[in-house]
Amino acid sequence: MIDEDHPELSIRRQCELVGLNRSTRYYEPTPETPENLELMRLIDQEYTAHPFFGSRKITQWLIGRGHEVNRKRVRRLMRVMGLEAIYPKPKLSLAGRGHKVYPYLLRGVAVERVNQVWSADITYVPLPGGFMYLAATIDWFSRYVVAWRLSNTLDGAFCQEMLEEALGRGRPEVFNTDQGVQFTAGAWTGRLERAGVAVSMDGRGRCLDNVLVERLWRSVKYEDVYLKGYERVPELEGGLRAYFGFYNTERRHQSLDYRTPAEVYGVGAKTA
């Protein structure tokens, strides 16, 4: 679909013509063996339903379903998928080497307005023959998905693109993430600081502070990804674009007095 040696059209222009983001020229999913992909598909579904499950419980769950696996293998696959149980661990692992870890700023803070707090997170999306990573930024108060991106690697470039798009739409007072290397990198934290945004970080282990993003992932997967069974990256991106449009403008939330995220965000948001 994308010809890197096209004599007349740049990669950017080809992506525009077929409706892909520039970073979506990753258009080939990351490959894995068929057996591992099946295990990862099952792990993803069980983790989405029970995000407090760690590798030990996931391993026992897979064994109970007749799969011959050990915890070492499951732990490796969960690392590839970017998954950790959401409960805090007694000994926190380190962020990227040389990366500054910022304090958690939201303990005891009441979130009462849009653009007060944003969060970002990354989740795994299965495809036939491989998988992709999906990142999203959400406004805590309104549940509005401010920006999102797909990638076939966990490098920070697609997160930076998402951040630039999000900051083009508004400025949060605080931006909260976990301590993943994408979010402790100087490119990410430095961009937020230059924009006048306070950087907040959970401990490693996806603590409950990021529960709103975990709920978003459950909605995305149960209401779209698992139902549609996308086979190619362009289909996945088009489907996610449609779903996030639905989520923001049509999906009413009880916690928002049955208003949509866009209705709540649009009323109180101040653009950059």
Distance between the termini: 36 Å
Low-confidence stretches: 1-6, 87-95
Number of domains: 2
Q: Would you list the SSEs in sequence order as H and E?
A: HHHHEEEHEHHEHHH
Q: Class of the largest domain, according to the CATH hierarchy?
A: Alpha Beta
**Overall spatial form:** globular
- How many strands, what sense, and barrel or not for the largest sheet? 5 strands, mixed
Level of helix content?
40-55%
Number of helices: 10
Radius of gyration, taken over Cα atoms and rounded to an integer in Å: 19 Å
* Count of DSSP strands: 5
Beta-strand level of the residues, as a percent range? 5-15%
Residue-averaged pLDDT: 84
- What is the CATH-assigned architecture of the largest domain? 2-Layer Sandwich
CATH-assigned fold name of the largest domain: Nucleotidyltransferase, domain 5
The CATH superfamily of the largest domain bears the name Ribonuclease H-like superfamily/Ribonuclease H
**Largest sheet strand order:** 3-2-1-4-5
Structural class: alpha/beta
Description:
The protein is an alpha/beta fold and 272 residues long. The chain folds into two domains: 11-81, no CATH class; 117-268, Nucleotidyltransferase, domain 5. It is 41% helix and 13% strand. The chain has a five-stranded mixed β-sheet, sandwiched between helices. Strand 1 and strand 2 form a beta hairpin. Helix 2 packs across helix 4 (71-81), helix 3 packs across helix 4 and helix 8 crosses helix 9. Residues 1-6 and 87-95 have low confidence and may be disordered.
